[in-house]
DNA sequence: GAGCGGAAGTTATACGTAACACTCGGGGCG
DNA sequence: CGCCCCGAGTGTTACGTATAACTTCCGCTC
């Protein structure tokens, strides 16, 4: 009789089924075709079920030298966006029998800045979103397979990269506003040192530069509604002609821009157009609803995880940016005729 | 010379330092006072650093029979609220050398409905938020220590429970609205079978019943802005006197209520007051800003993790609900005098 | 000078699993 | 008739760690 105080092991199952532990391992590991008879296999399965046997993961991981667990590193988990990324990544991982451990980046989690101290689990690989450089180097210290999300492809030579085609999203925004007739545009930029935000600024600048007679100004704000409101209010009250449209790096910043406009007595979109980027729930909660760039966060997470799993199997990850789509809602309109 | 192809083990460190593997384990495990000389200990530390040795977590977990990893089960990770819970829980866990694996509830993750299949990691305990009953029973199947978040204390006899005092929040909302003079109130309720939502309805009902002359109606909606808008619009256009205030189970529902009011030509708060619950970023993005009940999600996660760690150490978890606070903003005002 | 206790280690073992190497009997085939 | 192969298993080992049990040496006390 097996000791009931502790969890049953494969040896307990073997004893109950009258076979050796090795046979149990073969049957439960589905490696028994041609090695164990169907009758014996069934006896083993019955015994396992009767004892409610669950393999000891730690022992299996030690034996196999891999853990079927990967780490997902994301910036502090404040928005729905990364919740979506996680959901997509975890779904794909689960389909392949992998688990996902989350590490929201350095700020605010643990005393140890090392992701691997925080994630106690033994890991097979890492999926890392754009993040602080120190966490990145800590990760590279280990030799784990790494796939980067939303990062400068040229900056991580060793690692595969999966990106949203945000540059194209910015192009769509710029073309939309230019098409409506806007020429004086304010870029409300995230005050975060990250490749993805720098890329947005770069793309917007070059796109607007291609159309003569445009003026681009920039205001920087932390990614919070009130921070954005303050920055936008300051930018809109500087001397000189007022911009007719605000391009925001992010939907949260756009919400701040709405509040700034409201305080200044400007109406969206009649007096000023506003665009966002992300398409969070926030975007449709605003009045008027926000014209923004829809990012498919779950698809992003799925693609990232597929790439990582490919790397883990020694294959080449498929590349190619994920398309994004401008969603026209009520926050953009032609500018008022300013001199006619 | 150690093989450079594979990660160094404690034996490699021992060899490099000229000691036994046991000595390495003692030194690195900080159990060497009086067992190893300071000079030898330093030699071991040097060797470990030189080889960039990291202990094999799987082996340690197997040896020790515990993993310093716990599972956090949350409803599908769609809101900032559970991001906050995770952040708080992970912070406390990290401070105690624990890691946290996330399992967002059944919908949408994996083919296996079993949380333990998805979370590949071997676990020491579970912190589980209110969730679908099937996931719950799967968890109880294992004999892991369990702490419940935001759940019926009487329903899980074996497990400790950590709750936000949402009933008090609802009381504060009800008293605020009654104090303003509202008597016809619509409850926009989440259409989700969960203890926490049922408790809200119960509390609101009893609180209003204590004041004569009040009328409470209820509309149910899925937790999404558009779902809430539809439900609220239907409720507000039913024949009979229109409610003067809407109590929403959740800020997202409140955003839907705003949209419904706007479509019907009702102004918030002049024509109708609206309250939420959660205090998400959304609450201050709305115009007017939402009067809502502030929940401290991170504190909630911290308390939950503290309770679980206490259970794991064989101590009694501290109990007591976490206080919540009504935040007055611009979405509530006295009703228009309806018959004067 | 015998004995004892403590410092400074070492040796050996177990944790639970997966898989390699082996055994044993029977049947097909040359 | 001898050989080989195949089905159906079993015995054994190793993964890397933590720790209990043991050894050795030395200084002290009685």
From TrEMBL, chains A, B:
SMART domains assigned to the protein according to its UniProt record, in alphabetical order: HTH_LACI
Entry keyword set: DNA-binding, Transcription, Transcription regulation
Annotated transmembrane regions: none
A GO molecular-function annotation: transcription cis-regulatory region binding
PROSITE patterns: HTH_LACI_2
InterPro entries in the cross-refs: HTH_LacI, LacI/GalR-like_sensor, Lambda_DNA-bd_dom_sf, Peripla_BP_I
Residue ranges occupied by any HTH lacI-type domain in the UniProt entry: 8-64
UniProt protein name: LacI family transcriptional regulator
Lineage per the UniProt record: Bacteria, Bacillati, Actinomycetota, Actinomycetes, Kitasatosporales
